[in-house]
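ok here's SH3 domain-containing protein:
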Amino acid sequence: MAFRLFFALSVMLFLAAGEAGKQMPKLSNKKLCADSECSHPILMARALQDYYPGDCRFIPIRQGQLVYVYAMLKDRGNLFWAGSVQNTYYGDQEARIGHFPSSVVEETHALMPATTEVKTTNWDFYCN
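and the structure:
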């Protein structure tokens, strides 16, 4: 009986540890946003091609999808933007902000100027 209880607790702890997130390397130390919280989209863009992410910091994008861009990374990460994908129907995909190469999208509508420089935090590159 004690072994079964120990085994069940061990499995639950293992599964709980698998659910925990992990810190990934920072892509950049700074980003440009519309506001200090990066809560307003800077622009809308349309995906020129499919993009399959290499890890959990990035979001998958399919050709033709609309992407709302919230931040543009600076310095060593200047090739990446942060945004969320908008499908044809909002319920198709859980809204999640992630990074993607700026080269896979083209700007369709400028919404707000990206004039606020914000320091990135570890949470910007945290994966669940």
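+1. The first strand starts at residue 22 and ends at 23.
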